[in-house]
Design brief:
binds 4'-deoxy-4'-aminopyridoxal-5'-phosphate; 428 residues; four-stranded mixed sheet; Aspartate Aminotransferase, domain 2; Aspartate Aminotransferase, domain 1; 17% strand; 13 helices; single chain; alpha/beta; eight-stranded mixed sheet; globular
């Protein structure tokens, strides 16, 4: 079926407006490792998808999934050792403060559980988030979603503060420590205003690497001091590790690189390599309180299938040394892109952690004026060359590079050749 016909059918079947990537949408039919194949058999290097973290159609995961589904899959109101073992293994990947786990099926659900834990334990409802973020699509979690820059508004019990960054700082010209203090002051005043409004302060939710904000470089010390401030105010710090976790940054958790310890950790996307699997992990006290208050049940969560697949993903990450792969290949790719920045006036910045890199496109000759059109052009031309990326960030001008964790050095080398050709083509 040709692409135009399929797009028209899709619009009728799914309704107009269901998002699609690229000027000419991609019709893919198969995946293997870091590669995706279209209907003509053309191979693309997947440099976008973090969900298939151990690679598309990973044989170990597929086998574990098939075996478990052929043996037993049922809801969670029976004893089953698998899900207990997965919870234990997950908790052990954190420090001692994280003891117990509530499983769910999406990042949105897991964030919703985190909100309910923090709100239930404090008896207050006010949440602080950052102002160009995304945490999910439900009504409650959607209130913390602020795509686009500068949405510092208060929506009933959710208050957004500017995300911390050094490229376009809140106080131009300030020293790094003064800048950290300026962002902390916004957090302090958000907490104060929630308390004064009578909703009270329950918690602060952040993606530790501010992924949806565009991976900003954060003023040193901000997160550690924010954590102290949140706890001193009686609230909980929620780390949304849906994007940052599972070795994405070259460490197990984004918070390790950001220099703080969370009270509640939310994970999702890569946990099941595509099988819906998410989790909210916290102290036993927080989880016990949440369970006692809510009697939480989620039909597809905590199942033997989630357990088998979740375990298989962890096995592959550990067995294949993917954390080390991410740290090594990510550092080399970022350094190579930094070299490109020195020679290209329209690359305003190169940022990121591990295999999550943002290349910020700016207008030529401007003082870092974001250029989302150029980012979109780069993304489309890279796709024509067989490399799949997207654009993101508060100004949508960041070319987002976030491949499966199995992305190798030879893939990075091929990508750099395509990237150079793309920039040369655009700049003429
Ligand atoms: N948190 C973050 C940081 C995310 O990026 C996303 C999804 N992009 C979510 C939560 C929501 O996850 P899901 O789509 O699985 O509900």
């Amino acid at each position: 079926m040709d692409t135009t016909t399929l797009v028209a059918r899709r619009e009728r079947a799914l309704g107009a407006g269901a998002p699609l990537f690229y000027d000419k949408p991609l019709h893919i039919v198969r995946g293997e490792g870091v590669y995706l194949f279209d209907e003509t058999g053309r191979r693309y290097v997947d440099m976008y998808n973090n969900v298939p973290c151990v690679g598309h159609a990973n044989p170990h995961v597929v086998e574990a999934m098939a075996r478990q589904q052929a043996t037993l899959n049922v809801h969670s109101r029976y004893l089953h050792e698998g899900i207990v073992a997965l919870a234990e293994r997950l908790a052990a990947l954190h420090g001692p403060a994280i003891e117990s786990v509530v499983f769910s099926c999406s990042g949105t659900e897991a964030n919703e559980v985190a909100l309910r834990m923090a709100r239930g334990a404090t008896g207050k409802t006010g949440i602080v988030c950052t102002n160009a973020t995304y945490h999910g699509n439900s009504e409650a979690v959607g209130k913390m979603t602020r795509m686009g820059a500068g949405q510092n508004s208060v929506v009933s019990d959710v208050c957004a503060i500017p995300f911390p960054e050094r490229l376009r700082p809140l106080v131009p010209g300030a020293s790094e420590s003064d800048l950290a203090e300026a962002y902390l002051e916004r957090l302090r005043s958000a907490i104060r205003s929630l308390e004064e409004d009578g909703v009270g302060f329950a918690g602060f939710i952040v993606c530790p690497i501010f992924a949806n904000e565009g991976l900003p470089d954060v003023p040193r010390g901000f997160m550690a001091r924010a954590a102290e401030m949140v706890r001193a105010a009686g609230g909980f710090l929620i780390a949304d590790e849906v994007q940052a976790g599972y070795c994405r940054t070259g460490r197990w958790w984004g918070y390790e690189g950001a220099g703080f310890t969370p009270d509640i950790v939310v994970t999702g996307k890569p946990m099941g390599n595509g099988l819906p699997l998410a989790a909210t992990a916290a102290s036993k006290g927080l989880v016990d309180g949440f369970r006692a208050r809510t009697r939480y049940f989620n039909t597809f969560a905590s199942s033997p299938l989630q357990a088998a697949v979740g375990m298989a993903v962890l096995d592959v990450i550990e067995r294949e040394g993917l954390q080390e792969n991410v740290a090594r290949v990510g550092a080399s790719l970022k350094a190579s892109l930094h070299e490109r920045k020195k020679k290209c006036a329209t690359i305003g910045d190169v940022r990121g952690h591990g295999l999550f890199i943002g290349v910020e496109m700016v207008k030529r000759g401007s003082a870092l004026e974001p250029d989302s059109d150029r980012a979109i052009e780069v993304v489309n031309k890279l796709k024509d060359r067989g490399f799949l990326t997207s654009n993101a960030g508060a100004f949508r001008n960041v070319v987002k590079i976030r491949p499966p964790l199995v992305f190798g050095q030879h893939d990075a080398d091929e990508f750099l050749t395509a990237f150079d050709a793309t920039i040369a083509e655009i700049d003429g």
